[in-house]
Description:
Strand content: under 5%
Radius of gyration: 15 Å
Oligomer: single chain
Number of helices: 4
Helix content: over 70%
Structural class: mainly alpha
Amino acid sequence: MMNNLLMQLFKFGLVGVVATVLDFLFLFLLTDVFGIYYLLSAAVSFVLSTLFNYVASMRFVFNSKFTKDEKTKELLLFTILSVIGLLLNQFLMWLFVEKIALYYMLARIVATFFVMAWNFISRKIWLEGN
Length: 130
């Protein structure tokens, strides 16, 4: 049981690293290259990386409790959990940039740790049912 959890955490971390690299890349490009406001860039990059994360997580990390006929329900639940993660991310980005005066990319790194914990715990509970 513990080995399975450790392997799952490893896979979650690996998928998360790739999703985070995509997230940071989109955030940087949208903000610094295209001049989009950092909170809007953060939301767009979060959504794009979350789409990748959904596909990779459901294929390689989590054993869904949903049948093939219930995949729409699974995606809806994943989306709801991700929206909560997005709201947490946006609040933390705003807090760290506007109130603590951190550089937006550093703020994103700090926020990512909080959102990553939320993502694993919430998906483990509501997508796997464990």
